[in-house]
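A sample follows:
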Amino acid sequence: MQFRPGIKWPLAAMAAVCIVSGIYYADLLRSAFLRNPIPPSAESIARGRQLFEKDCAVCHGARGRGDGAAAAALPQRPDDLSRIAPPPIFPDGVVAYRIINGVKMMPAFKSTLSENEIWDLLNFIRSLAAKPP
């Protein structure tokens, strides 16, 4: 295949950007295919609620709406977790990835929460969408 003169370098640069982006975001891309292995039982949601109250409610608020006590002091309001789209739009693995690695101002919880705790927390967060305001 022949390219017009002067187009080889831009194509090579674009290919390099795609490859580097794929490598950089490989964990996030893999997480998009993960499903929560813990069923959203009442017990799991209760365990997740305890974790949420301990680690998340100060910023996200008791109902996850981004209105916690510390939210006013933050430069950007925390996400309203009651509005997170369900899978396949926002897969469980991506939510777990954000809990594990943090996002924006939210800290990473990979060193403080176990894998099962992350999935319990996710079950609680998903339950917030079902609750009336």
The chain has one domain: 32-128. Residues 31 and 100 are 11 Å apart (CA to CA). The mean pLDDT is 86.
